[in-house]
Amino acid sequence: MEEENIETLNNKEQIDVQETVNEGIEIADDVVAVIAGKAVSEVSGVAGMAGGFAGGITEVLSGKKNLSKGIKIDISEKEVKIDVNIIVEYGIRIPDIAFEIQNRVKKAIEAMTGLKVSSVNVHVQGVSTIEEKEEQENTIEE
Q: How far is CA 67 from CA 23, 58, 131, in A?
């Protein structure tokens, strides 16, 4: 009985320490969005992120890839809700890729920020075919 109480006390102390580690630290939505964007970009089968018109123009003008494009973040006190808008490659099984995205995004955000991810919603906005990629490459080369 005494051993159980000591074990319970040790577990409680560990939980208290973990909860106080992030006190006073605020993480910007953009930071979480970039972490999520990087995790999504590493999943094979994702042709691109579906962002708004303004995000596409910014990406073209700056010449930099916008990793937060197509990602919406909602951070409450210690919880994060994430919406990811993607374009998948033709022939890829959508439920598999969505599951992979959910796992990778959740692991990355929880590991890097300490925030708890309550949900990762994956919205498939389109399907990219091989012909579309070839057309894009041809226009870029010209």
A: 27, 12, 25
Q: How confident is the model at residue 25 (pLDDT cuts 50, 70, 90)?
A: confident
Calpha distance 71→83 (Å, rounded): 6
In the numeric block, which tokens belong to residue 85? 């808008």
HEC letters along 67-98 = CCCCEEEEECCCEEEEEEEEEEECCCCHHHHH
Q: Which residues of 1-34 are buried (b: 16+ CB within 10 A; e: fewer)?
A: eeeeeeeeeeeeeeeeeeeeeeeeeebeeebbbb
Retrieve residue 123's tokens.
């919205």
Number of neighbours of residue 97 by Cβ within 10 angstroms: 20
Predicted structure pTM score: 0.68
Strand segments (E) across the chain: 46-49, 71-75, 79-89, 116-128
